[in-house]
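Running co-folding for adenosine-5'-triphosphate.
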Amino acid sequence: MTAPNNISMEELVSLCKRRGFIFPASEIYGGLNGFWDYGPLGTELKNNIRDAWWHDMVRCPPMGPDGEPVSIVGLDSSIIQNPRVWEASGHVGGFNDPMVDCRETKSRYRADHLLCLGVKGDDQAQIYAFVENDDESLASARKRLEKYIKRKLDDEELDVCPFTSLSTDRIAATVGPGVKTAGTLTEPRQFNLMFKTFVGALQDEESAAYLRPETAQGIFLNFNNVVDTMRVKVPFGIAQVGKAFRNEVTPRNFIFRSREFEQMEIEWFCHEDDAARWFDFWCDTRRQWWESMGLTSDKVQMRRHDADELAHYAKEGCGTFDVEYRFPFTSPDYGELEGVAHRGNFDLTRHQEFSKKKLEYFDQQRNERYAPHVIEPSAGLSRGTLAILCEAFTPDEERASKVFMKFQPRVAPIKAAVFPLVNKDGMPEVAAKLHQDLRRRWPVQFDAKQSIGKRYARMDEAGCPWCFTVDSDSLNDQSVTIRDRDTLSQDRIGIDKVEGWLAERLT
Ligand code: ATP
């Protein structure tokens, strides 16, 4: 079953700005490409997703395939670590993306994100590069190609090939995005994605350090600390949520590919013989988790990495599966939400080699000492937030707001709103009292401004599941109206029952 994802990213980005979910960073200075700030609602939403992950993976994970409760402990390691860490992990030598520069526009592209449009069967003609999944860029390439060959082309006459497959001669015959003449694109060159900084007063190579490009390494560095202090037994996991930084060549698609983002990672340590079973377990568990967060299953898929895509640590063993979501800008294709990788014991072995400290585990049951194998479910919190925003965005022409955000109550930034119908006759006082009572337990808003219709519309855009309205009857019968965001149904409930009613739905 396939469901296209046709929502307009432009409208979603505009709603996120208007309602205080996400703003461009440093906006008053013109912004900074690849950086975003989360507003009041976005912060609540992202924290709710993070907390749900922490609850479901660390505090209360599912039972394992061995019938035993899964054991995972948390960690919060430094963003800046000793630079040797990144040599051992392979990031200094290997964390590169091939990039292509345009000499004319000074734009920089990831080579594997560029495609070229040409005329089928004509390998002498100019070809036109465009950015993958970017309809505007594709339309512009087609227009310039048609102008060059001086006629309209049918879809069947078009040929698309990856930029990375081009010979030097063909690169010279390629016209870059937004450019009129061929030959302005460079050959792909390696570009290290790590942000460099300096620690201390002196700015020289001795004091150079990196902002972490993934949270995972902090976990490996603390393997001995956790084993020694927590009495954990293999198999067990260590989980961490935090910021990661990558100097992406082409940040794009809103918060999908940014230069500062958050990850939620688990390193699951197990014996090599059990790795395949745990790999399957984590692939299933992680897919199900995203679905439990409201992503519909026909927009979620698992994709096995091809051999040539595998990271340096995942060449052997079970490989890597991505949990993918059909984002509006990738539809009908999918974009990565999370990678589940079998890293072997690459990381522990490398850190052992570079630090000269033993990173092994003594397995009493097997009477064996070894560096455990690792299954890593590595999820993007920022990308997950975007997927949940896309999934929630529900156009509805019948409503005043024309759109509402259908968040699951668990992740909704505002759980309920309380309104006085009008600002007189004792209604504001009753509503304020109800609001005071409820806000002790949940993020609940009080709103007395403008018409009731406008207040419902604001809450629809914020994705608030329920609104409680105090009206003139409330003063006599001590009840309020509950308005349901999704069905628009309105029921009455006693004021003293509201807290219990919400607790039943939110706990
Ligand atoms: P991609 O192929 O999209 O660059 P990746 O395979 O390099 O991603 P991983 O290194 O596996 O990504 O990182 C784990 C997760 O971190 C990804 O699944 C994604 O959700 C998130 N992530 C990675 N890079 C970014 C980014 N630039 N912006 C936002 N999230 C990111």
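Result summary
The two ends are 33 Å apart (CA to CA).
The chain has three domains: 11-95+196-391, 97-191, 414-506.
Job closed.
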